[in-house]
Specification:
heterodimer, A: 4-stranded antiparallel sheet, 15 helices, 18 strands, B: alpha/beta, 8-stranded parallel sheet, 6-stranded antiparallel sheet, about 30% strand
Chain lengths: ~575, ~600
């Protein structure tokens, strides 16, 4: 209790000092000039596939995101770091995720690249922007702090099932409000029941009850609208980090949204994939000569022979409905920005934390971050045999590898892997006043999740500190996206790298080497400039190139805290 | 627990080179141990010689009957004079030769072997566990390399000297000036008598081949930290640009694992560590794998223990030696490690283990390994047995400098004036010894000097020793000359126990009785020589001697109370004409009652 109280005081102290700083900046309100720096909103989707959105070739109805794309720009080659926690760590800090302490997930480990929280050598976007005079708030999923578990599985389940209350889901000094966000509404952990989420807090206070008919995606977006309304009353620009939980499993969506897609996916995996690919080619997102449609992830089971067609079509319909609901919420955010007069000078970026997930969440069963029953005591079914349809609160399921393969069209593999299906994300940037590039155009600049720090520092005229709270801060590693916004050509990153649970890649020039997670660590070589779907492995043809690229990877890995690397996989998170 | 070294799994490759064992006969007229009497000359010391760093499979033991010759130093080539049983030193009975060499001569060895199919195309390393003192190695007529140092293991990469097929001829030349050179030589002298023994020249430990991949783990450095709950592993690998995977195991359970860059270090968390101590010598297994392009290209099995040795003050403000942050009195025999039939070399590995086991059965928890370094397997047995080890640097270049054995008195003490070459030899060899022994948890104290023998620049040497290995205590000079350096003040007192006065010396350093006792009892038919036998105080029978010993132990208890941290009784066995052993030189008579000793000693460790 005393620790909690202390942390709240610390948080309050930070807010106060920041306000004082702002006051000094603007002495005398009478002569105060309007701050012309843009508002910044980062919207991060969770487990969204590369081609799920309409503006990236999908059949899901996403008119609001499509609007942002049509009025803004879309990046063709933008990369995250393949998994929830690592991507969030890189996004928030502007450095490779191991450098930020999150090489795996949120388990606390001794190795400096695997501490499971944003380590002391980092500053967050919010800390940098707040220091520069921005208002800051966050809604949604944090998942970059150590997860506090109860000592027994039973106690943990009671907590997940809302039978007991504990004050902290993570060490309090790791909460968003102690990492630069003035306000926070959302969940600390990674997996939630959309109807009654675990680890939901306001600031640092646990929210112990939610209203009837609560749906978390709506709550995130509507709270964001509230923050906008509040911040727009002041003169300062604001920074909002909207970390959507959608469309991460469990598949849970409102019936009216599911209804729209009830027949959509009866066409089956291959057909939907083919249609997506054709739309992507047609809209100019991909060049069919350089990006072939990769073979299906599981050619063994054709849709025709699938005995669970109804269940699978329904699963994907719920996935689509979750995205749809998110898009509707983003629509409400846009409307609020318009109503408050902020839309014109607000930069909105939208992207996903990793590719769609191939996991079978029902097979995990209850435990760690998955409840076994609802607050009222209704049993939650984990339908490993697809015996219960997904959608309601009482079912815990996911789309699985075949639909994930569709969601990531045209790329191979999925979430957690370093193949394009795992790491390439849609990325929309919208800013009526600031984006000079042709509206609706595609950008070829090689972009990376670390780029936002440098971009926002530039736009906010902020300073990226060398020390912060007495700690030396790791220099930022991203490239600025501003020239792309301005319509100028820039190559972006010369090289990109990744590592997560053994999955890894190095991309340099026109080449990429990549290996899968798990036991098979063989490097595969692709001429990524001409073979974006990673179809032709050239490693045997160019062994010297593999050596050179693997040396680049190792050199990066050694310099970026990938090593020392803990061996046994931790059990935490998704 | 670490797996027992099972002979069956490791002996596989002991080879045909030793089939000519029938040409061998031990030198007559000297007492022998039971193991020497039953020695299998076809397979002398067949065990895998490096149990702390086991690379499975691809090795070949070269011990056995080799040709030898002794020539004047200037003569440039080998001339066969007979057969020698490697690895027993040429002066020893078990070598089958029994000749001295001296500084004007060199000892030549010659043997041949054929490379097993499994080693072809690999990098082949030729290992010598120990060879005293300057060893020059040639293969197929080409010089491979030279090593100076009789106490540290060494190896050469012989790959490029190997012939594509057929018999490979190995020639080894050794020069050892014994006490006519400045090199560390322990107790060896040309004219043995009283506390000085026979020279040992040439190979005295197992010679073996090991095949490795071009990329391999050369060595690892293990340092536990029980306070932090971690163990640090620093590997050295032959090629940079690789990764190393290190894992710690409690039995079959992997408790920690890390992948590190080849030039990095792994710090493995060991949660709720089982601490190593006498009586509970828990060993964790360690696996080190070298990865290239994600493939395991080399694998080494090792082990480590979580234990700490440090100084800390007791309630009276006197420094004590702490084991795992608690005071445990350390009591052991002075252990020379000599054998009547093998001299430096125990006739068998079982014999080597025997001394440690008997020491343990008598209730000692420590061994002072006196101015000798043992084969790796000896330290492995100590690690397994929970036997603490105080390791002396073998002395050498003893000379005219004065020894002042009275603590607190400045009178006769003086530094040995050593030449720059002599000093460099000392430093190089002490460094190599400490390197080779770093990973054995049993070793808790390093002792650079003994009784002023070759003692020079003490503070400098002690500080350097401590800096090289801060994880252990340093006992500057056992028995003087006394210099305020290191962690320990160590006096020798014969025969009865005594100690440095805590009021004068207890504030900064732990107080130790580094030698006492030496109660002598010559046992007929188990004597090296019929006459001139020697002890610090000689007795007529075992009962009388044990009575005196019991008085000493009673007195020791009072000294422990007063502030004594450790004591060393002289000594484990009779050695040559020294008849003050707990056992005879041939280990056939144990002169003290083992179980009574155990009971008597129990009182030293409990308050």
């Amino acid at each position: 209790m005393s620790q909690k109280a202390l942390c709240i005081i610390i948080a309050a102290g930070i807010i106060t000092s920041a306000s004082l700083f702002a006051f000094k900046q603007n002495p005398g309100t009478a002569i105060q000039q309007k701050d012309t720096r843009p508002n910044i909103i980062v919207i991060l989707a969770d487990d969204l596939g590369y081609s799920d959105l309409g503006c990236y070739g999908g059949e899901v109805e996403t008119p609001n995101l499509d609007y942002l794309a049509a009025e803004g720009i879309r990046f063709r080659s933008f990369y995250n770091t393949s998994r929830c926690c690592p991507t969030r760590a890189s996004l928030l800090t502007g450095i490779y995720n191991h450098n930020a302490g999150i090489g795996e997930m949120t388990a606390s480990r001794v190795e400096s690249g695997y501490r499971g929280y944003l380590t002391e050598n980092t500053v967050t976007l919010a800390e940098v922007l707040k220091t520069a005079g921005y208002r800051t708030a966050m809604t949604g999923k944090w998942h970059v702090s150590n997860t506090v578990e109860q000592s027994t599985g039973e106690a943990q389940l009671d907590w997940l099932n809302h039978k007991t209350i504990y004050p902290a889901f993570s060490p309090l000094d790791q909460y968003p409000t102690n990492r630069g966000f003035e306000k926070y509404f959302g969940t600390l952990w990674g997996v939630i029941d959309f109807y009654d989420p675990f680890s939901l807090v306001s600031g640092t206070t646990p929210i112990t009850q939610v209203p009837k008919d609560y749906y978390h995606t709506d709550a995130i977006n509507d709270t964001t609208c509230e923050y906008i309304r509040e911040f727009s009353k002041g003169d300062k620009p604001f920074f909002l980090y909207v970390a959507q939980n959608a469309p991460h499993w469990p598949l849970q969506a409102k019936n009216e949204d599911i209804e729209k897609y009830k027949d959509t996916y009866k066409a089956g995996w291959d057909e939907i994939r083919k249609r997506r690919y054709e739309r992507m080619v047609k809209m100019g997102l991909i060049d069919s000569r350089k990006t072939e449609l990769s073979p299906p992830d599981d050619a063994q089971l054709s849709w025709d022979k699938n005995l669970d067609k109804d269940w699978d079509a329904r699963a994907m319909a719920v996935h689509a409905a979750m995205i749809d609901a998110m898009d509707q919420g983003i629509g409400r955010i846009l409307r609020t920005l318009k109503e408050t007069g902020e839309l014109e000078n607000t930069l909105i970026v939208f992207l996903s934390d990793n590719g769609a997930s191939p996991e079978d969440a029902s097979a995990y069963g209850p435990g760690f971050d998955r409840p076994s029953q609802t607050r009222e005591g209704r049993k939650i079914v984990y339908p490993v045999k697809k015996e219960v349809l997904p959608g309601p609160q009482t079912t815990f399921a996911s789309i699985g590898r075949r639909w994930a393969n569709v969601a990531n069209t045209p790329y191979q593999y999925a979430k957690m892997e370093s193949y394009e299906g795992g790491v390439r994300t849609p990325m929309i940037a919208y800013w009526p006043r600031g984006i000079k590039a042709r509206k609706g155009s595609f950008i070829d600049q090689l972009g990376h999740i670390t780029d936002f720090m440098k971009t926002f520092v530039e736009l906010a005229n902020a300073t990226y500190p060398t020390t912060y709270r007495g700690h030396r801060i790791t220099p930022m590693q991203g490239e600025s996206l501003v020239s792309a916004f301005r319509g100028l050509r820039s190559a972006g990153h010369e090289a990109l790298f990744n590592e997560h649970y053994g999955a890894r890649y190095a991309r340099y020039g026109e080449w990429k080497i990549v290996s899968k997670s798990g036991r098979d660590s063989t490097w595969h070589l692709y001429k990524i400039s001409e073979d974006q779907a990673e179809m032709k492995d050239l490693s045997r043809m160019y062994p010297e190139k593999v050596k050179e690229m693997s040396r680049r990877w190792l050199s990066w890995a050694v310099q970026n805290q990938v090593f020392p690397k803990p061996g046994t996989p931790s059990r935490a998170g998704h | 627990m670490i797996k027992e070294l099972t002979l069956s799994c490791i002996l596989g490759l002991v080879l045909s080179i030793t089939v000519q064992g029938q040409n061998w006969k031990a030198i007559d007229g000297r007492i022998k141990t039971q193991w020497g009497e039953a020695l299998n000359a076809k397979k002398p010391l067949p065990e895998y010689p490096r149990p702390q760093f086991v690379r499975q499979g691809n090795w070949l033991n070269l011990n056995g009957l080799w040709d030898y010759g002794i020539t004047p130093v200037r003569q440039g080539s080998f001339r066969k004079e007979g057969k020698i049983l490697v690895p027993f030193a040429v002066e020893s009975a078990l070598s089958g030769v029994g000749r001295n060499v001296g500084k004007d001569n060199v000892l030549w060895y010659n043997t041949s072997f054929s490379l097993p199919a499994g080693m072809r195309g690999k990098k082949v390393l030729l290992h010598f566990g120990g060879s005293d003192w300057r060893t020059t190695v040639s293969l197929n007529g080409k010089m491979v390399g030279e090593h100076e140092g009789g106490n540290d293991p060494f190896s050469f990469d012989i790959s490029k000297y190997l012939k594509g097929s057929g018999s490979q001829t190995l020639t080894v030349k050794v020069w050892d000036p014994t006490d006519e050179g400045p090199q560390p030589r322990g107790k060896q002298v040309r004219k043995p008598g009283s506390i000085w023994y026979t020279p040992v020249t040439g190979i005295w430990q197992t010679v073996w081949l090991e095949a490795v991949n071009p990329s391999y783990v050369e060595k690892i450095r293990i340092t536990p930290d029980i306070d932090a709950g971690s163990v640090t592993i620093q590997p050295s690998v032959s090629q940079k640009g690789s990764l190393v995977r290190v894992s710690a195991w409690d039995g079959t359970t992997k408790i920690a694992e890390q992948e590190i860059a080849a030039n990095g270090q792994a710090v493995l968390p060991i949660k709720n560590a089982k601490l190593w101590a006498p009586g509970s010598p828990f060993l964790y297994d360690l696996q080190v794998e070298l990865l290239e392009e994600g493939k395991v290209v080399d694998q080494v099995k090792s082990y480590f223990a979580m234990r700490k040795v440090s100084l800390g003050k007791d309630a009276n403000g006197i420094q004590r030696i702490l084991l795992n942050n608690k005071f445990v009195f350390q009591y052991g025999p002075l252990d020379q490690g000599w054998w009547p039939d093998g001299l430096y070399t125990a006739p068998t590995t079982e014999a080597l283990r025997f001394d440690i086991e008997k020491t343990k059965e008598m209730g000692f928890n420590m061994i002072r390994k006196h101015i000798k370094v043992e084969p790796a397997i000896w330290y492995y047995f100590c690690d397994k047995a929970g036997m603490l080890v105080w390791q002396d640097m073998p002395s050498g270049d003893n000379g005219e400098n004065g020894w002042e054995n009275r603590l607190g008195v400045l009178d006769k003490q003086s530094d040995r004036k050593r030449t720059p070459e002599s000093e460099a030899i000392y430093k190089k060899e002490w460094n190599a010894i400490m390197e080779s022994l770093h990973n054995y948890p049993s070793i808790v104290v390093w002792t650079p000097f003994n009784e002023s023998w070759g003692q020079f620049k003490t503070a400098e040497i002690v500080d350097w020793t401590k800096k090289k290995d801060p994880s252990r205590l340093v006992n500057a000079a056992s028995g003087g000359n006394f210099v305020p350096a290191g962690d320990i003040i160590d006096i020798h007192n014969y025969p009865h126990p005594a100690m440095p006065d805590p009021a004068f010396y207890g504030d900064k350093r732990a107080l130790v009785l580094g030698e006492f006792g030496g109660l002598g009892l010559p046992v007929k038919n188990h004597l090296w020589k019929p006459a001139d036998n020697w002890g610090y105080q000689t007795f007529k029978n075992e009962e009388e001697m044990f009575g005196k010993y019991s008085e000493f132990i009673a007195r020791l208890k009072e000294l422990i109370e007063a502030g004594l941290s450790a004591a060393v009784y002289t000594q484990t066995t009779d050695v040559e004409v020294e008849t003050n052993g707990l056992m005879t030189y041939d280990r056939k008579v144990i002169k003290f009652p083992v179980s009574k000793m155990m009971d008597l000693h129990k009182g030293l460790y409990t308050k």
